[in-house]
Write a structure and sequence with these properties.
5 helices, alpha+beta, 8 strands, Glutaredoxin
């Protein structure tokens, strides 16, 4: 039922011009929240989990190629990864496309995505496990693997305000406990 709701909302939004939120920051929780373990795959079919990025701040974006607002925000996520990605920060764009990594690779190639790696969960179990019931859905994960905050809906992820916010979160969480 929830899966049908996610797909229905994304299909409807695909036909409606949805403006990306002028988000200056991600709404943070009062304290970090535990995340369930999730698994997904890279482009080559190798199993991954958020543990692969332990020690980094991760912007986990759950999306699909059939979701219009998701497609529109993907270049901003790519530019954000190009700017901040490295030893302390990673954008993980997790596709829930049932058609597999090939459809994601085709989309990435068509729009010139250079900095993001393909991550895919065709079972959609990760979205359900994280209780992300709308697309795109973004979860900010701290270096300890806990959820710091989340945002549901499209956004421009590479604006100066957002970059500044994320740089602050990175600085406050790196080696200084869990609280941003």
């Amino acid at each position: 039922m929830r899966l049908a709701l996610i797909i229905s909302v994304c299909i409807i939004l695909s036909f409606v011009k949805v403006e990306a939120a002028e988000l200056k920051s991600i709404p943070l929780h009062g304290s970090p929240r535990a995340l369930p373990p999730i698994t997904f795959f890279d482009e080559g079919g190798r199993s991954l989990s958020l543990e692969a990025w332990r020690g980094k701040v991760v912007l986990l974006n759950i999306w699909a190629t059939w979701c219009g607002p998701c497609r529109a925000e993907m270049p901003t996520l790519d530019r954000l990864q190009g700017r901040l990605g490295g030893d302390r920060f990673q954008v993980v764009a997790l596709s829930i496309d049932r058609a597999g990594a090939g459809v994601v690779r085709k989309f990435f190639d068509e729009i010139g995505i250079d900095h993001l790696r393909i991550a895919i969960d065709p079972s959609m179990k990760s979205a359900r496990g994280l209780k992300v019931f709308g697309l795109p859905g973004t979860v900010l994960v701290g270096p300890e693997g806990t959820e710091l905050g989340r945002f549901i809906g499209p956004a421009e992820w590479d604006t100066p305000d957002m970059v500044s916010f994320l740089e602050t979160v990175i600085a406050k969480t790196q080696g200084k406990g869990l609280k941003p």
